[in-house]
Design a protein that fits this description.
alpha+beta, six-stranded antiparallel β-sheet, two-stranded parallel ribbon, 4 helices, 8 strands, globular
Length: about 170
């Protein structure tokens, strides 16, 4: 008993493991993403890095992804930011060729400019040559959007990731 006490004091208490995120199917994630297209009285949720929607998620791109993916929004408030979404806590890097509905394309690089630190939700390829895809995103100056994109296909800052809590 005394040895166990000293072991705890010298080594420290075991670290609490992170609470696992709720599992979500690809279809449910995309359905949840689509809800913000009309959640504002029939209009899209407006973009804001400082405001929170009625569901408690930040109204920016990473808050939108956190909402769609059922990621915890209590700590940090509004869900993990774009940089944290690109870590092994939430995602696993994949190849562009392996993109499936509900996967993410993330630019976690902190380079000021028109496009930096952004995340979008891949839905499907719109061209046979995989030169463009349909995606959901929450973007500045517009709000929630569902449009054809090329992020990650021509810009090396965007990398494809798979959420760890997604089910097939």
């Amino acid at each position: 008993m005394i040895a166990a006490f000293f072991a705890l004091v010298l080594v420290g208490a075991p670290a609490a493991s992170a609470v696992p995120e709720a599992q979500i199917s690809r279809g449910e994630l995309l359905q949840r993403a689509a809800t913000w297209l009309t959640a504002n009285g029939g209009a899209q949720v407006p973009y804001s890095m400082t405001e929170y929607w009625t569901d408690g998620y930040r109204q920016d791109c990473s808050g939108f992804v956190s909402m769609a993916a059922l990621l915890d929004n209590a700590n940090p408030q509004g869900g993990p930011n774009t940089v944290v979404l690109a870590t092994d806590e939430y995602t696993t890097p994949i190849e562009v060729a392996d993109l499936q509905p509900g996967d993410l394309l993330i630019d976690p690089v902190d380079e000021p400019g028109e496009e930096f630190r952004h995340v979008v939700i891949f839905e499907k390829w719109t061209a046979d040559d995989r030169s463009q895809y349909l995606a959901y995103e929450q973007r500045g100056g517009h709000g929630t959007d569902h449009r054809v994109l090329t992020y990650g296909l021509t810009d090396s800052k965007y990398k494809p990731y798979r959420l760890k809590n997604i089910t097939d």
